[in-house]
Structure formats: C-alpha cells, structure tokens
Amino acid sequence: MHCNKEYYKLVKVFTFSKYTSYLTAKKYVEEVMPWIPALSENISALGITYRELVTTIFSSDWAICTDERFVHRYATMCLQILSAHPTWVPQAMAAFVRWFTYGAREKEAAAAPMVHDHLHALIKGVYRTIPTCGTSLAAALVDACPFKAAKPNTQVLFVQNALRCLDYATGIRRQVLQLVLNHTIQIDVEVQVELEDLESESEEDEEDETEGAVEEGIFEFEEDTEDAKNSAANTNNESGDDSEAESGSDSDSDSDSGSGTDSEFGDSGDDLGKVNYNAKKIVAKLDAVMSTLFTWLEKNSQIDVAAGEVPESASQLFLTFLDLFNAIVLPTFKSRYTQFLLFFLCSRDPQYADVFLGTMMGNVGDPVRTLAQDKVSSVTKVAAASYLGSFVARAKFLTPKIVRSVVGVLIQWANAYLDWQEQMAKDNAAGQKQSNRPLYSQVLGGSSAPLQFTDFERHAVFYAVTQATLYMFCFRWRDLAEASGGGPLVETELDNLHWCHEVEGMQRIVFSKLNPLRACAPAVAQQFASVASQTNFMFCYAMLQQNRRSNNAETNTGSSVSGSQGDASSSSLMLSSSTHILRAGLDTFFPFDPMTLPISRQFIDPIYFEWKDVGSESTDNEESDDDEAGERDDGANDNEAGVVEQMVAMSISPIAPLSALPGGAF
C-alpha cells in the first residue's frame, strides 16, 4: 500500500500546518474526520511500514483546531497508535512537546491556553497508558528547551508547560526540575558575563575617579562622614529620577528598537550602552523565568490546612530541589539569584531550613580531615560556608534558637581547627628541633613573628567559616544577646548585654595566629569591628590597623622584588596571583545579597532580613522597612537600568576584584 498513490494521498490529507497549508483549520477538520474511524479500525497495521503516515499524524497542527469533538477523536487515535506501537512514543513526544512554546507570537497568544490544554490532555493520557514513556517525555523536553537567547515569553511558556507536566508525570520530577534549574542558572550566569564586560569597558575611567579613595564593600564603613552619606543619597535620588524619566522608552526588553539607548547611559560610549542594554534584556528574561518558578513552587508547597502541615509531596519536592542545588547551584560561583528558589522553599516549613543548614554544614565537613581524606573539594567547602553565613544573616524566618545554634556550631568548628593546627605545630616542632628547616609553628606564625600569619590558600575553609560567623554576627547579633537583667533588648542601652554561650570562643578565633580579619572581606572585617565595638562584645580595631600596615608593607616589598628579581619574582607573583583569586572569592561571594529582580523580589521581600544599624529602635526600623518596601513597590516598574546598576554594585563573582566595583550598603 505504501508504494501506491492512494497511500500518499492519505498522507497528504493528514498534512496540515497553520502557516504553510492552503487549508483552513475548519477545512482540515472536514477532510480528516471521515478517515479517523477507518484508521482506528486498522491501528494494529500502523507499524514501521507506514512511517510517513504515522509521523504526519503526530506532527500535524491538529491541536489548534477549535472543534472539540474532532480534537477528542484525533487525540484518541494518537493514543491508540501509541498503545499498539510503543516504538512510536519518542517521535510522538517530540512532536507534542514542540507546542509548549506556542503563544510566543502575539497573534498566537489568544489560542495558546486551548492548544496547551489539548496537548497536556493527550500527553497525560499517554503517560497513564504507557508509564514507561516518562524517559521519552524527559528527553523530548531537553531537546525542545529554548536557547538562553530566546525571548522572555518563549522561555516562560516552555517553563510553565514543562512544570505542568509534573502534575501528572511525577516520575520525571527530578529530570524536569534539573532541566529547568540548569536553564535558569545559564541565564543567571549570562547576566554576570554581561556585567563583567560592562566593568571592563568602564574600568579605565573609574580608575582615575577612585584612585586614593577608601575601598568600599557591601557594608557602609563607620569612617564615612555624614556629608559622604548625604552625597550618596542624593546620587541615588538622581539616579532614581533618571530611571523614572527613562521608563517607558524600553518597555519591551526584547524589542530590537534602540531608541534612547545613547542618552540612557550618559557619557558612556555606544559599546558600553549596548552592553548595558544587553544586560537589561537578560535581567528581564531571568526575572520572568524565576517569577514563573516562584509561582509554581508556591503552589506546590502549600500547607495542608486540614492537617496543619506541609504535605508529603511538598517535602519530596524540597528534598529533590536541595539535591539539585548541591549538584548545580552550589558549585556555580557566578549565580546571582537562582539560589533564592531554595531560599523561598526553606521558608515554607521550619524543618526545611534545618535540613538545608545541616546539608551545608555537612559540605563544610570535619575541621580535622585533610582534603585527601574528604570527597568534598575545598572550593565546595568555601561555597557551603558562604551559603551558611548568607542564609542565616538574611532569612527572616529563622528563629533565634536556630541562629544561635548555627553560630555555635561554626565557632566550635573554627576552634577545633585551631586546636588541630596547634597540635600539628607541636608535633612538628618535636621532630624538627635539630633540622635547619623552619618549624611548622614558624610557618603557622610563631610567637616571635613580627606579624600574624595569613595563608589564604592553606586555610581557605577556616577563613570562609570565620567570615560566615562574623557576617552572621553583624546581622543577627540581636538574636545572640539579651539585656543583662533578662528583659527585652533595648538598643539604646548596650553597655551590659548578656551574650549567649554559643558565642564563647569567638575572641580566640578573631585574635588567633591565622589572623582571619586579614583574610576576610575588608568590608565584613570592618563592619564586624564596628558592631562588636558598639555592642561591647570585643574590640579589634587595633588588629585591623595592624593588618593595614602589614598589607602596605607587603605591597612595597613586592614592588621592590619585582624590580630586582628575575625568575624568583615570577614565581612569587604566580603564588600571589592564586592567593588573590581566593581572596577575591572571600571578598565578593555573598549568595543571598539583596534580591533586585522587580517581579521575583515580591516572593522574597516578606521573608528577607534587611540590614539594621546598631542602636536603632525596633519601631523606627519597622517604619523604615515599611518606607523601603513602599519605595520598592513604586520602583518596580522602572526601567531595568536601575536593576543592572544594583547588580554591579553587589557582584558575587569570586573573580572580579572588590576594588573594581562600586560600594553598596545594606
């Protein structure tokens, strides 16, 4: 039959494309409807011999037809074919999934919900009839996933429909979430790439302006004068006014129109404006995808009102997401916002936060195990410590008990590490007293050393753990202390605070010979010294001054060596380079820095802990938070240029040096 003309006429009858066929959808229904009963009676014969006919049936644009009776019969025929011949499942799934982005064009938008309903009804029927088709469905989704350069509406439609598959195809939950998370983080990282290009373009201009200025970090330093703060506030206001003036000129972030681009970015060149414009488009795309994911997560992690708890399906979702976070997000340093998906999930149930914190602590590992004994790399350990510190600092939903517990565990870890280092120094000294080689205690930093020792590479995990502890203290010190009489803490009366026992041992860490204040991000070290001093917890400004003198001395020595040494100088510079890379990571990696995506932040703001200055009354802070929330809402529809500027100021790339970024304040 497949060799005669009648067969190919039948193939032509089922051939239909909305954009290329001469038929209308109504005419197509009239021509195909009589053939459906005939084919349904001969389903068993539709094997590999009739490939052209079967693939045409699957790939036809039948889903756009509005005749529900025809759509039901056509879908039933497809299901019968697949039930009788499961070998067609991969081709069928590929043909069905291609419709998931239907509606991206404006003229398709009205019919898109109907088309997607038709496709999901058929795929659901196939999955129930052939449970093993999940592998083919997952593979089809991977193949159909749009490129990261696709427009936001295309990305959103695909993500929405891929997640909708999980309503009935629960067996492929992990594969679908892995696909969506991978896709999201690729867009997320692309934002960082664009902003690094922006920084490199403007770096030369900024060098002249920032030369001799005090390096700024994520905190606002105590040395800043009121005039400087007022000046910064005025600058922000002006920037906000500019953004308002620009809004509307770029309402469609994916529009190819470049009107207003030159004026939007002031004195920057055309290339710089182009980079900034690209970054804005990617930010809008990331925001659209992430808000879609937040909406889905919110829907699927609802508390069971009758039972008064989160259902088992939500807990399984969280565990799957946590596992994917460990595999995909944790090793990705350039991720800016993808990690907030897990942050949001952790807020849905107190147990989720406990599990996440325990997992991150497990990644940090045992302080006395060497890398050779541990399966977790030092890079992962440092990242896990950074996530611990940033999560506890920013998660408003954590109780004081949990905050104290995490701080206590990290302090115990750091002290155990110091004990181990001191024991190793003693053991080494006992066996090397007669040797000409330096004792381990001298390498570690002996008592006779003029300056305390800092080895960024050797003790990377210790420094990351210590920085996480200091970072948490700066944000959550109120949860670590209470009034001396046991009453409520009054921030105007900080002279006689009673500190919880979990913070015992922090002073030993701060003033240890490993000198963590020198290794930590300067902004974190400076702000810790400020908060600790104002709360009378400890005083370490002298240590910071000593470290500054040490850094200046090493800089001068390095310049001298580079001018007088040959190969030795090159070797020293190589070692210095690796050290600076690690230092840059500690300086800039704060995973839960403020969420600035206009739509997605609506899910995060209610559960996000904002920075509060020491000494401010709680009532004042609440009013301030309300004012800030109002300002954020008012600016939600502003041009994305403001978002890009904030992201530059709050970079978390471990490669970009802190000095290249504008300072940001919490």
List the helices and strands and how they pair.
Layout: H1 5-14, H2 25-32, H3 35-40, H4 51-59, H5 68-84, H6 89-97, H7 112-129, H8 134-144, H9 152-164, H10 173-210, H11 226-246, H12 261-264, H13 270-300, H14 312-329, H15 340-346, H16 350-364, H17 378-394, H18 400-431, H19 440-444, H20 460-480, E1 481-483, E2 497-499, H21 506-510, H22 516-519, H23 522-534, H24 541-564, H25 567-588, H26 601-604, H27 618-634, H28 641-649
What does this structure look like?
By secondary structure, this protein is mainly α. Helix content is 61%, strand content 1%. A two-stranded antiparallel ribbon has the order 1-2. α5 packs parallel to α7 (112-129) and α20 packs parallel to α23. The protein is elongated, with a radius of gyration of 30 Å. The model is unreliable at 210-275, 439-451, 561-578, 618-622 and 632-666 (pLDDT under 50).
